[in-house]
């Protein structure tokens, strides 16, 4: 009888590996290929020395199968640290982030959260995280209990923008306790990983991480949330899809600059949400205009009014225009969003927040 994938998986499941458990129970096996007696797979999801230590055990076990002619087990160089491990290890260093998504029946509510709103953009660098962090603070100032999840796995900037850098605690090695900054309950993949780790993840790892960020984080740690804002990565990839499939998403806000290239990508993001049946709560034009602080001249660096026009054409609400403002950038870099201060920029965000509250979206 020809060697099957199931036989190899069953063998891997039966062998205890150094560090405890099996490579299957610890979700360490990726890209298993079995063909004509040749077995190949990748070991990923635990510290590299641990993976190297278990490689010979696994190779020996697979080679012992009668139909096997060769075995190749690959441990990628620089495998992420801090994933996987036994329950005891994971309790010591906090929960493992990333891994295959767990089976789940349909979209589920996130415990302790009334509404979930995604903040997305098509293009990167248009100010999505700036808008998400400031909107979170403005909504908090308007009396709402707000959570903010940084799902921008490839460039998590919310810890810096919100002035939070502590690694979240996990008393039982499973539940993750979010941080609190400027009155906002905050969690970011960036707080759980070393800077270079997430960028090497493939789709399933990203999807697993998203699922954990939604369901393993104790979002009501500081009281039940009226809304959880999710800062998405730019584009229309695995994170966006996971979010729409795993949770009951109440709506999405799309941020764009008025520039044609940004708008083109924003339309793709809108199309994706519409196809996934997520209501679009509205569009925000960021970097809409620039008023020279010296002479008062108003310039339109990236064009002007394009997002409002697009919203009208698509029959979607236009939520507001936010100018290019040096203070907005400096405040973000300093870890205190401008919405936490007084002045015209903070008022712009307060108006954006109030508009959402008035329409009963939050
Ligand atoms: N209205 C604004 N005025 C001045 N600077 C801004 C404004 N909006 C965003 N910025 C600055 O532009 C840069 C990019 O913004 P931000 O990180 O919010 O964009 P993003 O769309 O989330 O990017 P990414 O694609 O990396 O997630 C940041 O340095 C931010 O401070």
Automatic annotation (TrEMBL):
Naturally occurring in which organism (per UniProt): Thioclava sediminum
Keyword Transport carried by entry: no
Annotated family: Belongs to the Mrp/NBP35 ATP-binding proteins family.
A Pfam family recorded for this sequence: ParA
Compositionally biased residues, Low complexity: 98-111
Region (Disordered): 82-111
Keyword Ion transport part of the UniProt annotation: no
Protein name per Swiss-Prot or TrEMBL: Iron-sulfur cluster carrier protein
Lineage: Bacteria, Pseudomonadati, Pseudomonadota, Alphaproteobacteria, Rhodobacterales
Keywords recorded for this protein, A-Z: ATP-binding, Hydrolase, Iron, Iron-sulfur, Metal-binding, Nucleotide-binding
Domain MIP18 family-like: start-end pairs: 5-73
Subunit structure: Homodimer.
UniProt: ATP binding residues: 122-129
């Amino acid at each position: 009888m020809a060697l099957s994938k199931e036989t190899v998986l069953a063998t891997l499941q039966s062998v205890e590996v150094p560090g405890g458990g099996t490579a299957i129970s610890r979700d360490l096996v990726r890209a298993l290929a079995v063909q004509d007696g040749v077995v190949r797979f990748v070991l990923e999801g635990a510290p590299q020395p641990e993976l190297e230590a278990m490689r010979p055990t696994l190779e020996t076990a697979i080679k012992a199968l009668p139909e096997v002619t060769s075995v190749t087990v690959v441990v990628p160089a620089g495998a992420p640290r801090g994933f996987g491990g036994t329950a005891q290890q994971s309790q010591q260093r906090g929960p493992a982030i990333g891994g295959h998504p767990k089976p789940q029946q349909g979209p589920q509510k996130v415990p302790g959260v009334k509404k979930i709103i995604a903040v997305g953009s098509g293009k990167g660098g248009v100010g999505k995280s700036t808008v998400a962090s400031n909107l979170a603070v403005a909504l908090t100032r308007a009396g709402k209990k707000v959570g903010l999840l940084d799902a921008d796995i490839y460039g998590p900037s919310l810890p810096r923008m919100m002035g939070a850098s502590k690694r979240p605690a996990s008393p039982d090695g499973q539940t993750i306790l979010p941080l609190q900054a400027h009155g906002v309950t905050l969690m970011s993949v960036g707080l759980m990983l070393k800077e270079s780790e997430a960028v090497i993840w493939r789709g399933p790892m990203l999807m697993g991480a998203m699922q954990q960020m939604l369901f393993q984080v104790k979002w009501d740690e500081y009281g039940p949330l009226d809304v959880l804002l999710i800062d998405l990565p730019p584009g229309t990839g695995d994170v966006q899809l996971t979010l729409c499939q795993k949770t009951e998403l109440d709506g999405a806000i799309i941020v764009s600059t008025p520039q044609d290239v940004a708008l083109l990508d924003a339309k793709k993001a809108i199309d994706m949400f519409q196809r996934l049946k997520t209501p679009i709560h509205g569009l925000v034009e960021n970097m809409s205009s620039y008023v020279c602080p010296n002479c008062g001249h108003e310039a339109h660096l990236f064009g002007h009014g394009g997002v409002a026009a697009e919203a009208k054409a698509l029959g979607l609400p236009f939520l507001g225009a936010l100018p290019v403002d040096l203070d907005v950038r400096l405040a973000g870099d300093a870890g205190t969003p401008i919405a936490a201060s007084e002045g015209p920029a903070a008022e712009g965000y307060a108006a954006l927040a109030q508009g959402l509250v008035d329409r009963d979206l939050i």
